[in-house]
Predict the 3D structure of the following.
Amino acid sequence: MIITSIPDLALQYDEALSLLRVEWAAGEDMRSFRVSAEQLLKLVNQHGIRHMLLEMNTFPDISVYDQVWLGVSWMPVLVKLPLERVVLAIHRRRVHNQLAIDSLIALFRPFIKFDIQFFSTATPGLHWLSDYSSRIPELLSEWDAVHGRGLAHGGVSEPRPAYGHRPE
């Protein structure tokens, strides 16, 4: 299900998989980043999300001020949520945000109880989060119907697996 309650974020929720996909949808405008990030935490808590994909390729470079805010205000709440697995989709060319993320993870490592994995794009991360669920093609189709082939820009796309009927 596509969720539209947080305007800066493109969100997709699958209750059966307890999975939430998150992409930044406000372009370069980060003025309401903190409000959106707080709303995201409430959404994760409200739905008891266990698996979350954060598509970091759509985020502009996170300012130093927002990095400090994430460390002081956001991460302490995130680590207390019922998350089991988190995927951060970030291409290796996104060095600024990769360093910001690495710093936050290093700072909170003793408190992080969920598994974190990095992928360069969202699709392989979704497969890992869902234990390669047969629901993923449906979720990808739903996402594509609303957002096209993905909001992520600047990354190298990875091929999607060819699902469907195979000739015998």
Notes: The chain is about 40% helix and 15% strand.
